[in-house]
Amino acid sequence: MSEHGRRRRHRTVDRVAWILEAAAREPGGATVAELARTVGAPASSVQDLVNGLAAAGFLLEQHGRFRLGPAPHVLNLIAGRVVPRISQAELNELSRVAGTPVLLTVRVGLDAVHLARGGEDEIPRLLPLADEHMARPLLRTAAGRLLLAFTDEPERHGLLDELARQDPEAVAEFRRALPAIRASRVSRSEGLADPEVSALAIPVTEGPVVTGALVLTHRRRGRSERLRLDRAAARLLAHIQERRM
């Protein structure tokens, strides 16, 4: 693959992304010193980046603290409905129909990030993954594998090249599973990210485009959980199809 097709980390881009995330996670904003500690860079370098981000509307400064500005939201509006929009009430209803917790998940770079959840998880330690929108490795989650499978092919090749540097075994296994995931439009994780968790992901679509994933989870005990998730997914897909008619 050409250099153009490769997806390599870029130090400055990483720092900008970390700054924006750190500012977003602090309701009252963060100081330059706090952001520098988060990024692991000199305060002078971070100050330059923060000044540029504030000038472009990606950050807002109030009393020496920086919080996320309106620019990311505006870009999303310009692009249209890139991020799947499912209300909390809808997610709770989907969880009720499925009979399992439901997570709404998107791909962010090389990670899967849960945007929201419906229902109560029977494994309480997993709740922060959704409530705090913690990043999870793409190839170690059912949602990540599904979203990667339905990423445009040139983009997917670039992402897999980068992921192969970190986890070549997971990439090789994913390549073997890719045709089945695309054919069934279902992805599974049997303890990939957590040995106690079984998960199944189905796509969220906008027209022909997969914009996110709905993840059903259950405590992993054996084959019975796989069958239970299969039945839950079937109920959920039937419910979604009925609503569209």
From TrEMBL:
Pfam families reported for this sequence: HTH_IclR (PF09339)
Annotated GO MF terms: DNA binding; DNA-binding transcription factor activity
Gene3D superfamilies, alphabetized: 3.30.450.40, Winged helix-like DNA-binding domain superfamily/Winged helix DNA-binding domain
GO biological process, one term: negative regulation of DNA-templated transcription
All copies of domain HTH iclR-type, residue ranges: 10-70
Keyword Transcription: yes
Protein name as catalogued: DNA-binding IclR family transcriptional regulator
This protein's record includes keyword Nucleotide-binding: no
SMART domains, sorted: HTH_ICLR
Record key words, sorted: DNA-binding, Transcription, Transcription regulation
Superkingdom of the organism of origin: Bacteria
InterPro entries: GAF-like_dom_sf, HTH_MetabolicPath_Reg, Tscrpt_reg_IclR_N, WH-like_DNA-bd_sf, WH_DNA-bd_sf
